[in-house]
Amino acid sequence: MKMRKPCKGRLVNVVLKNAKRWNGKSFELEREARLNACDGAETVEFDCNGALVMPALFGLGLDFMEPLRDDVYTFADGFEAMRKGGFYGGLYESAANPIDDADKFTAMVNRFKTEELGGKDFEIKFLGAYSKGFGTDGLAEMVELAEAGVAGFGDGNAAIPHSRFLRLAMEYGKMTGKRFFFQPMDRTLRHSGCVHEGAYSDMLGMKGIPRIAETIAAYTILETARFLQVPVHLKQVTCGETLDLVCRARKAGIDVTCDVGLYHLLLDDSCLETLDSAYHILPPIRSAADREALWQGVEDGTVNAISVSHTPVLRQDTVVNFEDSVPGALSLEVALPAIWNKLVERVGEARAIELFSTAPAHLAGADSAHDNVVVFAPDRPHVVVESDFAGHVCNSPLMGKELPSSILATYINGVWTAL
Amino acid sequence: MSALEIKHLFGLRGVSKHDIRLILDHAKQFREILERPVKKVPSLRGMTVVNLFFENSTRTRTSFELAEKRLSADTVNFASSNSSVKKGETLVDTLRNIEAMKIDIVVVRHKGTGVPKFLADNSNAIIVNAGDGAHEHPTQALLDMLTVEEKLGTLEGKNVTIIGDIRHSRVARSNLWGMTTMGAHVTLCGPSTLVPRNTDLMNHVTWEPDVKKAVANADAIIALRLQKERMDDALLPSMREYRNTFGITQELLDCAKDKVIIMHPGPINRGYGRSLPFGWRSQQ
User: Fold this and answer.
1) Does A324 touch chain B (CB under 8 A)?
2) What CATH number corresponds to the domain at position B153?
3) Who is most buried in B54, B74, B160, B253, counting CB within 10 A?
């Protein structure tokens, strides 16, 4: 059993030596770089030995699942995960306790700001629900939620109950001027599917989720957005056909943004062959061709950002056979080391930082990273072990895998964390 | 005789020709035991086998139990309907409890794909899959293969046509992996809502929507029942249309080779899948 560490950190000033620091265009070697939290604070020196010092990241799709099981995973664990993974902020969507009225929003914000959790160190933005309780056909109190300060509206991964409600929710929410964040998934086409419908699902006799479950929902959302002139964001797009719809919608003048999930860029459905419930992720990991289409969308700019969709799942819900397991994966701690090299290879350093830091922050209406940084060794491999993860869960498909890179340290809001 | 390369029997996908040959040859030898007055040999003496059935089963469970007893194993039957599973015990807990009693082999049937592998990952026992979801049912397929070999001499170069609800059939999946490994070519035929949508990963397997063409070159036809318990959609307009289109009728058999064998794993949906008596059925 892992020991829970106190999340609240001590403010320090940092002197980074021999760091290749991001100057906004490229990494530039600096013999000495100072990061100051406050006057009079202790100073820590760290020799980077040529490691990269880049802006800290902003995570789309955070859900720490509190109240899930307080002894297993809490907000404090989520913040520790952010600190370990180099995230200075994130867009939070609460599936366990949907924020569907202003009181719940205030309670959630107050909980995040609780001193002992350490949440005030992070730039957390919240999505309010557009339906009462997620996935229902009753409207949430969107106007009051907007006035209270939500960044936009979304119902987590819950499917839209029906097109008429979609129209009404967007029509009502339009008054707020906020963006709607949708997970495009047609619930009837998904039915009881749990994996990508393709060669592997057919081979294994597992119920699949076809691509059209996503594209039909995406088309409905985009047409409704065009009709009502409401800005929308499509979360965790999994196939090229949906990206084509996004391109066409933009050409038609619709304000649409989209992201792709970390694991959808890293994995393809051949992983199902292992029947390991760690690969149970929704929306499903699709084929190698789909993954390549997503990478092309990342390259050509169709994709605005990469989301982490950080979802802790209780151990007892993962130590079961695939179909009976609860979907979801941890990603904050491993996202950057897992994907950085591939990302730089495909799109270069500037775009990689944009996809993981500035663009998601912009989508959430958050400030930029400023002096929050990650010290990162792109060529130092690291095998993922249980203690890499915060809390008492470790549901990640990367568990036991060797990542090509390592995070050496993070500096988030004046708190230095050496790993 | 050399040993099996596999420790567990999860399915027939990936099982080598050598191992399948070994199992079939052993099965032929054991068959002779059934003709003796004392139908028992000491092959599994001292071994304890648990039949762990999370789904209803009569034929498979009885077959396993009889085979275990005839091989002198100590057997324990576990049915989830009257176990602690009903009280919320997890699969792993159930396995660990049973394993603590020092069992050697677990025969498992479960609605979830991959449960046998999951149990093997979490125990030291030998796991035999008696059916997992719509994934595989390797022992039934081995029986089918044994039947084909007995009737046709070999599977090598033979054309086997599987007709019916293939999408939901674990027997069909095991058959197509095992039979293609042994050199047969498998043709799948059925309503497009009941066959796998994607056969890219299935070598030596083709889908033929026209049932007359599907049987024309077949040396063996396996007719599958409709897995009504696994159907949760509108997959067929009516049983009548299914029977008229895909039923094994004399008219259909007129399109097939004279010496074609017809098999059915049972249980039969009376009036749906067949209009003729079957030539042979796999015998457990």
Assistant:
1) yes
2) 3.40.50.1370
3) B160
Residue contact B200–A321, C-beta within 8 A = no
- B109 touching A (Cβ < 8 Å): no
pLDDT tens for residues B228-279? 666 667 788 888 888 889 988 889 999 999 999 999 876 666 555 444 444 4
Q: What residues are paired with A374 via a beta bridge?
A: A54, A410
Q: Is B275 at the interface with chain A, CB within 8 A?
A: no
Distance CA A365, CA A183 (A): 19
Closest CA to A324 of A189, A188, A199, A207: A207
Distance (Å, whole) CA B265 – CA B218:
18
State the Cα–Cα distance between residues B59 and B281, nearest whole angstrom.
13
Write the residue in B90, B133, B233 that is nearest to A323 by C-beta: B133
Mean pLDDT over all residues of chain B? Answer: 87
**Peptide bond preceding A283 in cis form (omega within 30 of 0):** yes
Out of B91, B115, B135, whose CB is closest to A205? B135
- B46 to chain A, minimum CA–CA distance in Å? 30
Give A28→chain B minimum CA distance, Å.
48
Are the beta carbons of A408 and A417 closer than 8 angstroms? no
Residues B118 and B195 in one domain: no
Tokens encoding A169: 């929710």
Residues A214-237: pLDDT tens digits?
A: 999 999 999 999 999 999 999 999
**CATH superfamily for domain A55-371:** Metal-dependent hydrolases (3.20.20.140)
pLDDT on residue A3: 46
CA distance A203 to chain B (A): 7
- Residue B121 in domain: yes
Q: How many residues does chain B have?
A: 284
Residue A215 tokens, joined = 């594209």
Domain ranges of chain A: 55-371
- Assign B280 to helix, strand or coil: coil
**Side chain identity at A364, as an amino acid letter?**
A
Whether residue B76 lies inside any domain: the answer is: yes
Q: Are residues B123 and B142 in the same domain?
A: no
Beta bridge partners of A154: A181
pLDDT score for B270: 58
What is d(CA A382, CA A284) in angstroms, rounded to the nearest whole number? 26
Inside any domain, residue B32: no
Q: pLDDT digit string (tens) for A363-374?
A: 999 998 888 999
DSSP line for B184-233: -EEEEES-TTSS-S--TT-TTEEE-S-HHHHHHT-SEEEEPPP-GGG--S
Q: Which two tokens stand for residue B52?
A: 């762990």
- Domain range for B155 is 138-263
Q: Nearest CA to CA, how far is A309 from chain B (Å)?
A: 26
Residue B104: inside a domain, yes or no? yes
Closest by Cβ to A275, choosing from B90, B114, B170: B114
Contact A89, A123 (CB under 8 A): yes
- For strands A232-234 and A256-261, give the pairing: parallel
Question: Do A27 and A20 meet the contact criterion of CB atoms below 8 Å apart?
Answer: yes
Same domain, B143 and B258: yes
Mutation pick from B192, B198, B200, B231 vs chain A, by most beta carbons of A within 10 Å, is B198
Answer yes or no: do B82 and B55 share one domain: yes
Structure tokens at A107: 């309670």
Q: Is A315 on the interface with B (CB under 8 A)?
A: no
Under an 8 A CB cutoff, do A199 and B90 touch? no
Rounded Cα distance between A185 and A163, Å, is: 12
